[in-house]
Amino acid sequence: MAFSVEVEEWVGGVWHRFITRRASPDFPEACVELSEMQRPLAVLFRALGGASGVGVEAASARELMLRRNLLQQVAGTCKQLPVAWCDANNLRLPSSLAVYPETRLNQELYRWLALLAAQSGSMRHWARDNQRWTQDLLERYPALRTRYQRLVEAHLRLRPDPAQLPKDEAALERALCQALREPGSVTHWPRSEHAPWPLPLWLYPAENLGEPQAADLGDEDEGSLLAPSGDQKKLRKRATRVEENTGKGGLLLFRLENLFSWSEHVDLDRCGDDSEDMDAGRVAEDLDELALSRQRMRKGGGLKLHLDLPPADVDDIPLGEGLKLPEWDYRKQSLQKDYVNLQMMLPRGSEPAPLPAKLAPLARRLRRQFEHLRNDRQWLRQQPQGAELDMQAWLDFHVERQHGQCAERGLFMEMRQNRRDLASLLLADLSMSTDAHLDNEHKVIDVIIDSLLLFGESLSAVGDQFALYGFSSLRRQQVRMQELKSFKQRYDDTTRGRIQALRPGYYTRMGAAIRQATQLLSECKQRRKLLLLVTDGKPNDLDLYEGRYGVEDTRQAVLEARRAGLLPFCITIDQEAGDYLPYMFGANGFTLIKEPQQLPFRLPQLYKQLTQP
């Protein structure tokens, strides 16, 4: 019996693979992955006028009311197909393209979609707008006509034959083919109960990708969630709110003579337990839509403190009243005054502590290196007297005298002690993501704590003015900035104890933290001012700060810091930082530490490079 079941399952698997492969309209041998072209497509999109804060990401499959052939109906495929779409915050392209039998054409289709998205705007009519965008793009760049025609002719050979379609669908198919060949030539569109076969050369209407949170779904009825999929591609799933049905308030009809016993009703969920479902990610990928409710379930007595602030008696110690800071809204292109509340705090439970013994050897090595900077001597040029002749000043003087323009200038060089007129502030990301493990023994927060300690040891050796702060956030009403060492405080065991008492939590509202750090640095009298940011990811929070909004606000805060005369620089361990940090900090305004364990040693070295005269 068991043998027959195994044979049946094997035959079923073979049949499923066969029928699915035969029913698929794609060409797997010519498949091109978006991950292989994501970086150049982003550059191409921005080069042709696309918004800089919009990133290129994978689009999830969309349900389309298509007329499927018999083979596709038997296989149960082609109900959902990935299509490209773009709005003010997103550029979503299919995670892979295999619509053409040639790899070269699929790559060219990716480029065309990026170009069309850069030309697009708000969509009111799918067919008319795509025609207009295509027409404008070809008129602006005539060299694209040949490539476009090649894509169109190759695609038309793969589309359904209008002669085999019902009358209304055939009329719509002919109109679409005409619109592809001659963009702008079709103004009247026949109606049809079924949607036409997807047009991979056109953009589709944008999906609503709001971010309903577990704690508060907000006022929208629909949104999206990011399906956890491990190493798989990050695809957003549509999410809708469903009303919680507890069975209360209804009318119960029964016959009293059938009631033989009385028992107390207890809510019991027999489908859930305290164990983690290892297949949750796979199941989420298979779902087309995720339903969320406001139901609160107690599970194993656990408390998710990262979603709510802890009680005041165990929370960090506030310093004074909160500070009101502005925030940049890229949609309005303006600063919203007093929009964010920032609270300065001290780590609770911190006590004076010495440098950990494991860091002592590296700290001694760094201190010796940085002590040389204190003793550096430099040649001062164009001095009235000195030990050496300044040849450049003498040549300038000789040339000016030949032309009758003899200006008074010093002709000597003198060696003098170098005085470092420099102040720096290090801002460390303390969000919940820093609680992630790097290996079996270390977390990201451990590396950040070691980096802060060694940074303080190095700068105290050279004598530069510096301050140390950490930050996290929980929406705009609670941006938390940990004061580890201010400019007026000494670096001693008190500071070391505060650093070692740090704990990760909450989210990453970078813009507010950078603005407060800019204000603190601007009050320093030093001529050169350096603002360092250490982080493990991009800006995010529970509200609108997720996505482009946070990136744009952080970029604006960095620009404000530069206008204030500061040098902002970001050090990150996020391997995907190249997708967003060049836009926020500039091509030369950040560095990526590929091995996070090297951050404690690399951070002082980077400071040394950035502050060399």
From TrEMBL:
Coiled coil: none
CDD domains: vWA_norD_type
Highest taxon of source: Bacteria
SUPFAM superfamilies xref list: vWA-like
Region (Disordered): 212-241
Domain VWFA: 421-610
PANTHER family xref list: NORD PROTEIN
Protein's recorded name: VWA domain-containing protein
Organism of this sequence: Serpens gallinarum
